[in-house]
Amino acid sequence: MQEQRPDYIVVEGPIGVGKTSLAQRLAESFGCDLLLEGADDNPFLERFYRNPREGALPTQLFFLLQRAQQMQALRQADMFQPVRVADFLIEKDRLFAQLTLDEQEYRLYDQVYSHLTLDAPSPDLVIYLQAPVEVLLKRIHKRARPHERSIDAAYLERLSEGYMRFFYDYEAAPLLIVNAEHIDLVNSDEDYQALLEQVHRVRRGRHYFNPMPVSL
User: Fold this and answer.
1) φ, ψ for residue 186, nearest 5 deg
2) Keywords in UniProt for this one (predicted)?
3) Is the model's pTM score more than 0.85?
4) Residues of the chain with pLDDT under 70
5) Which of 27, 81, 125, 179 is least crowded, fewest Cβ atoms below 10 Å from its Cβ?
6) Is 31 annotated in some ligand binding site?
7) CA distances (Å), 98 to each of 144, 154, 162, in order?
8) Domains and CATH numbers, the chain
């Protein structure tokens, strides 16, 4: 299993699905570098959640520039590092931009995007976590981050649909689609080990992991 692990793993999914927590646990298991999107470093994020129309453009431009720097650093890092784990795909930045920006703002965003060097390495595996909106809301409320208090079900519904459209035709890397509704990948060793087995098995194509709740 040590020899079969992917060299570059990306965990993706909508807000509240648990992608950062899973990425952290995978990095601990593999003893490797962890690359996080750094949402808490974005000074415009709280403004966006308070007033999306006012804060959308600076929020997206900050994330875009931040991710461009992260990809550059990743390319320049020690290429002999055996494994890296990230909690974002650079391509998903457009997903959020299309969701939150108006036509003129998106045109400006697209101009900035086209002038950046986004030479991101291709993942060896993308793990796409899914969960119903009510589950996402419950997890968001549980972690109680101040800037996320105004996130509502309508926004999460649009975001989840955007992710489903994005991954429907995704073929840039092997893809493991995980139904995370009934599993706890942070606190349950059993759930995590079951997922880890799937990670070691995926080599190419599209795969599904749909664990069902245990009947009492």
Assistant:
1) -95, -50
2) ATP-binding, Nucleotide-binding
3) yes
4) 1-5, 76-83, 117, 213-216
5) 81
6) no
7) 27, 16, 9
8) 8-209 (3.40.50.300)
